[in-house]
Amino acid sequence: MEDTSSSTATSLDTAKPSLMSDPAQQITLVQPTPRLPTRLASLYKPSSKTEPSQVAIPSSNGSAQQTVMQPRHRALDTINSRKMEAEGHHSIEMPPQAPSTLPLAPPLPPKKLQSKKPSPFYDGQRQKYNEICVPLNNAALKGDWPAAEKIIRQFPEVVRSSITQNEETVLHIVSSTKHIHFAEMLVNEMNDEDLELQNGDGSTALCLAVASTVEMVDVLLRRNKGLLKIRKKGDLPFLCAVYSGDRNMVEHIYSKTDLVDLKWNYSDKTRILDSCLAFGLLDIALKILIDTREKGILTIETLVLRYLASNASAFQGQTALRRLINTISVLIPGQRLPFAHHKAIEIVRIIWKEIVQQKHEDILKQIAGDPSIKKVEGLLFTAARLGNHKFIIELLRLCPDITWEIDENKHTIFHVAVIHRQENVYNLLYELGSKKLGVVDKDGNNILHLAAILPKQNRLNIVSGAAFQMQRELIWFQEVNTMVSSVDRTKKNNAGKSPQELFTDEHIKLMEKGENWMKQTAAHSMVVAALIATIMFAVAFTLPGGNNQNNGLPIYLGKRAFAVFVITDAISLCTSSASILVFLAILTARYTEKDFLVSLPVKLMIGVSTLFISIMTMMIAFSASFFLLYEESMKWAPILVTALASLPVFLFACLQFRLLLDMIQSTFSSRYLLKNRKHMLY
Questions:
Q1: In angstroms, rounded to a whole number, what is the distance separating the alpha carbons of residues 46 and 41?
Q2: DSSP helix/strand/coil, 92
Q3: Are 364 and 413 contacting, i.e. CB atoms less than 8 angstroms apart?
């Protein structure tokens, strides 16, 4: 070896003058295969040795080539990868060129980290694999360190060898578990480089530990912080942590991540932000944006805005239950739930403040859509289509010029809101005015024509029942009708239809469905109401205990239970009779368009409500009769009967409550659906 080294050094000194003097030179780079960890002699076959990278320089007299050690260039790894696999090396022939005319070489790209694979777990020696690797695998899964230590002491190289078909080491296996002590002892038996070994999927032990516990991650990072830079198929471990969806894990990994040192590329920041938003980790995404802005490495990307524009739920405020939980959890340190909608708004503000610094034309391409790319919908119109009014508000506050921008169909955001029945976006119109609503689209439709067109089924299904869907459509049409001029109300589109004619044609099938649904509901409910009325009428003259033969008064007249029985019987009889009359009125209605707006929904709401009251009072009367008859002899019987009698009432309430709630909401709340209740924009 000493002779070879001295010969190489001498060759280097001799080769330098020859390289500069002879332009017709050849440089041959010998590319080595990646160096693998040491293999177990008892388990693995020896592999062929490879030489380091060399530069062979022929002398000017044609003598034997002289070698010079050279580093491997990353570009050769991509261009000649197939040839390298077949021959074990590759070469590049440089064309003759005078040294004085050589251009300055561009700077080399950053060196790509090479994938480090563990030694194969066996080469045809299945028996030894079953005797060593399988027990070690089982010990790692169970956290049995004494059993694993016994094998490691006998075969030390097994800690850096793969013991599964997926090329996983013992550390890969235990990193997916919660056996912290096993991992700590195992890491002490390994070198720092051993922690960087990757399995068949390209995952290091850290990429698997992010789906385990924070303590497991700390065990690995205390030994080798460089694991944070080793990617799994292009993904940083931080992105793997985001995929796990564990908020605490993501925060912990991010606290140990240095954005500047890692030099996240453009794709990293975009994918990590998108993934954080997709998994609801808005607070982490906001922290990344703030940190990158402070460190001067913020990259503005409208893809993040596109995701937020299409995710209206991220901007929704908290419910009363959620606010109560946050109020209680504030007493417990570290347990307060973040206000997600506030985080989403802050993210939009940070990105939008940077975008509005650009030219107006560039802003329109990113927000309103690029006319040259018709298949890509503008962010502004995406938010309007999905009803994300808070997203739109943030955009309009900093750039009000985009309010009346139109898309490829010549629709503003308010036209889009009417098409898709998004009342929250449409209500912004009350603060901006309706002076520009007279614009028509390619089909000659104004905004009232768009209100007359039947929306998609998913928007109709917001309320249950075809009759209430028809009512919601009438409310929309009438409200838009008040916002347009008298000319637009009678203006015809390219098909020769006025808004009212178009509304009738579009909703004729929905009216038929609403009529059939109302009649079927009324008919079935009237049968139940008639049965209740018949029974309660008969019970009124057949009192429990009978009458006194002397004076004809009821025997239990002085008891409280008897008063309850009489009152509830009368209420049940009256309400069931009223229910019959209301359902009869529904069956004999004319079913015009205007009937669906108030008359029919109110009648159905009254009919169902009175039917529910009649059922409830009937069961109360039934229970009261048992208290009268069996209160003294069997005291447990009235209580049991009362409990059983509440079951029909409970079932009816559960099964029909949603329908009753929709009736009330559609009849009364819908009147305030399209009204300016508060200043949302300014």
A1: 8
A2: strand
A3: no
CA atoms of 653 and 660, how far apart (whole Å)? 9
Q: Which two tokens stand for residue 15?
A: 């080769």
Contact indicator for 343, 286 with CB cutoff of 8 Å: yes
> Which residue, 530, 544, 543, is CA-closest to 611?
530
CA angle, 90 as apex, 85 and 94 as ends, to 5°?
A: 160
> Residue 57 pairs with which residues in a beta bridge?
66
| Alpha helix positions (H), 279-388 | 282-294, 302-309, 320-329, 340-355, 360-367, 379-386
H or E segment and range at residue 652: helix 636-668
Q: How many CB atoms lie within 10 A of CB 475?
A: 17
What tokens were used for 679?
């200043």
Closest among 251, 315, 323, 317 to 281, alpha carbons compared: 251
| Reported pTM | 0.69
How far is it, in rounded angstroms, from Cα 179 to Cα 141? 8
Question: What's the rounded Cα separation, in Å, for the pair 623 and 646?
Answer: 9
What is the torsional sign of CA 152, 155, 156, 158? negative
* Inter-residue contact 585 to 631 (CB < 8 Å): no
Which of 229, 222, 174 shows the shortest CA–CA distance to 238? 229
Question: Residue 605 contacts by C-beta under 8 Å, 6 or more apart in sequence?
Answer: 660, 663, 664, 667
CB contact set of 341 (below 8 Å; sequence gap of 6+):
314, 315, 316, 317, 318, 390
Report the C-alpha gap between 389 and 681 in whole angstroms: 10
3-state secondary structure of 197: coil
Vertex 417: Cα angle to 412 and 418 (nearest 5): 100
CA 568/CA 196 separation, integer angstroms: 79
What gap in Å lies between CA 378 and CA 612, rounded to an integer?
Answer: 50
Report the C-alpha gap between 441 and 421 in whole angstroms: 18
Angstrom distance (rounded) from CA 56 to CA 69: 9
Partners of 481 in the β-ladder = none
End-to-end CA distance of the chain: 81
pLDDT digits (tens, 9 = 90+) for 101-123: 333 333 433 444 455 667 665 55
Greatest pairwise CA separation for the chain in angstroms: 147
**Which segments in the chain show pLDDT lower than 70?**
1-117, 119-124, 259-264, 296-301, 317-341, 369-375, 434-435, 631-632, 676-678, 682
Q: How many CB atoms lie within 10 A of CB 373?
A: 10
CA pair distance 543, 525, nearest whole angstrom: 28
- Torsion angle, alpha carbons of 209, 210, 214, 215, to 10: 10
DSSP state of 669: G
Instruction: Name 55's bridge partners.
Output: 29, 68
What are the phi and psi torsion angles at 50 (to 5°)? -120, 150
Task: List the one residue out of 134, 236, 214, 143 whose CA is nearest residue 185.
Answer: 143
| Residues linked to residue 92 through DSSP beta bridges, in sequence order | 27
pLDDT tens digits, 136-168: 999 999 999 999 999 999 988 889 888 888 889
Which of helix, strand or coil describes residue 235? strand
Q: Please tell me whether residue 67 adopts helix, strand or coil conformation.
A: strand
